[in-house]
Amino acid sequence: MTQIKFRPRRSCLYMPASNERALEKAKTLAADTIIFDLEDAVAPDAKEAARERACAALQSDEYGDRELVVRINAMDTPWFAKDLKQACLSQADAVLVPKILSADDIIQINRSIDELGTGLTTKLWAMIEMPQAILNLGDIAALGPNTRLTSFVMGFNDLAKEMRAVHNRSIFGPVMIQSVIAARAYGINIIDSVYNDFNDPVGLESECLEARKLGFDGKSLIHPVQIETANRIFAPDAEAIAEAEAIIAAFKDPVNAGKGVIVVDGKMTELLHLKQAKQLVATAEAIGALGK
Ligand code: COA
Ligand code: MG
């Protein structure tokens, strides 16, 4: 299993790449990841200009530590090839490809990026939003270790449409669990879908909590007002950090040397918990180091 170097992705903010004000504002926002959208949020007539604007933003060096991702148009559209080429040559950290159906799609896109030239570091993120992708989750995720594929992003607006379901979060629980399991089996990151009602912080918080409990790394967002909630919920809180530090300290204690299981704060604690504790502290440190 490939281990991906840790980077916080608590808040992944979409913005239409056609929206100059949003692109400007993003330079000051505390989102871990910025997703310049060329797809759903951009009208057909604005696609070319949006692509140019996104590429100029990528090359501007004005977005600090933020991870910069471009959501390009789907493989069966007239914009796909140029979107992919320009985003990769502009050194996007990743291209997010919508409407992925199968492992073959990933193989094809991966090959197309490789053919653009040597030394390109752009990763591949896949939208999980089509019924076929849900059926093929395991096969798609299995390509993680041998391709540029590093992240899944759930797209429940499209999935609900494809299923002809009424968009209601409660129906997606099983899909969320299956997707996390597929992602984690192959070291892939996984980002939750958007919450459309951006004026409802309570609803957003409840979705963030649900996703965090299921193991998601973060949430995709549509408005700056949502960033604080996602950053807070997807970061380890003070209590969890203190607990993790106590576990690390207990295993370091010479009286526990060589032991596989000990008692910390009245609870059975095994080496797997030590590993988890170290991961949590590393996550907290990586978040703390942002913007420094
Ligand atoms: N990223 C960065 N900045 C954003 C933003 C975003 N996603 N959404 C809004 N802003 C900025 C606005 O430009 C405005 O900036 P200003 O103060 O410099 O004028 C400020 O935040 C306040 O915006 P507001 O007036 O509350 O929102 P709006 O009515 O202009 O836009 C949406 C509402 C939903 C249209 C807009 O938030 C949006 O386009 N979101 C992303 C949609 C998207 O990318 N969808 C695809 C994935 S599902
Ligand atoms: Mg969509």
Fraction in helix: 40-55%
Morphology: globular
User: What number is the mean pLDDT?
Assistant: 96
Number of strand segments = 10
Give me the CATH fold name of the largest domain.
TIM Barrel
Low-confidence stretches: none
Structural class: alpha/beta
| Number of domain units | 2
CATH homolog superfamily of the largest domain = Phosphoenolpyruvate-binding domains
Largest sheet: 8 strands, parallel, barrel
Structure description:
The protein folds into 2 domains: 11-234, Phosphoenolpyruvate-binding domains (TIM Barrel), CATH 3.20.20; 238-290, no CATH class. The mean pLDDT is 96. It has 12 helices and 10 strands. The strands form 2 sheets. It has an 8-stranded parallel beta barrel with strand order 1-2-3-4-5-6-7-8, surrounded by 6 helices. Strands 9-10 form a two-stranded antiparallel ribbon. The chain is α/β, with parallel strands linked by helices and 292 residues long. The longest helix is centred in the last third of the chain and has 18 residues, at 271-288. Coenzyme A binds next to strand 1 and helix 1.
